[in-house]
Amino acid sequence: MKRIYLSYTQQDGEAALYIATQLRGRGIDVFVDYERLMTGGTFTRRMGNEIKGRDFVVLIQSPDALDSPLVQREVHWANDQQTPILSVLLRPVRDLGEFAFLLNTLPIDFTAWPQDKRMSAALNELEKRLTVADNDETRITAKTISSLTEVATLRGHQSWVRAVAFSPNGEFLASGANDNTLCIWDARGLAYGENPPIAAIDAHQASVWSVAFSSDGGLLASCSNDSTVRLWDMDHLPQPYEFARFSDHHEPVYSVAFSSDGRLLASASYDKSVHIRDISRIRATGREEGLVALAHASHVYGVTFSPNVDNSYPPVIVTASQDSTIRLWEVDSQNLRAMSRVKPLFLIGHTSWVNAITFSPNGALLASTSKDKTIRLWDMVKMREVACLAGHTEEVIGVAFSPDGRLLASTSKDKTIRLWDLANQRELSVIRGHQSWANSVIFSPDGTLLATASGDSTIKFWGVGRGAANGH
Which end of the chain is more exposed for a tag (fewer CB within 10 A), N or C? Predict the structure, then answer.
């Protein structure tokens, strides 16, 4: 039987009673302080004991709840005890304030209350999340992970490995290196011994800086010091062929990214521009139309698109620059050319150049890395910084969210991989395994593996979570 603690404020008492009654009817043990009579030391002791003994805290989220000192104490206590928190959104909240650490969690929509007092769909979703979270043996939390266990080391490149990317189904890993090659690896058939690539491509005339899969896994994009962006047809493994080549940049290209629907491809370059092209038209007609260039004041090192979680908002393209800024444009896929005439929004906080940027799975947070040795987290609704993660002793290069949004992994010139608990915004673990800079990092789509690329010419796979202890 699952045991939960219901956190709410008196103004939301009717909804709290209803939710508690319905969950109890579904066989869930629910603790509710109905009268809110616990005070002082009695409250603190009993609250702490109750939360510590529960599987989850369910927060009924409303403006009144977020302003309540009692609710704040309950939620922060749960967070400190690493008790998972699920949110039920009763009334819209403009600013999470004290609960900014919940930005990366998607609340269950209960806003139809009290018009629809049955709320069966929302209750079913709440029960489902409690069940899935309770039974998921690979769920990543601070409780289940203290470090990473090395699963395999891939040796195939002859020089620094700059970039790694998983295919959307997790079957393949692509890597790019200073030896001008792309390698494709079987990510599901790993062994402790030799793991040769299933494909090695002489892809470019200079170092490969970034690789990215399209959302359907059919295309792989790569970019290079040779100033080109190239597309590779992955349907012809183990011999992928060059599907398209773009030579419109005039300096090295450092980053490539597909939009979440796979239609658009963006590339960021030392030539102070980001180029956006409609790949869907190229795939359909073989011809390119409507290239858009977004000008910057300085070299551009990173580019990414926002995830389009529910198609309710237009995608956003975000760039990272040597001028220490992060820039954002709203993407109109029906009128790309108009983007070049729109002024971007800026996120300012880093004190040196920004290397990499990535969105959380639900798009609520953006993470950025910098030469200033920090990772910064940005609230993409309020467009402001909500956390600065410090711990690396050298420039931070790579960053990745876990698929469930609970963890952040970062890589650095200090040769380490660091794991961060986003709920508490604290460092969980420092992993030392590479002999040179740790350049790139990515979680597998199922969250059970972490891949890192290094200047020591290797790629390492690490087991994550409960599976890590026995080598995945």
Answer: N
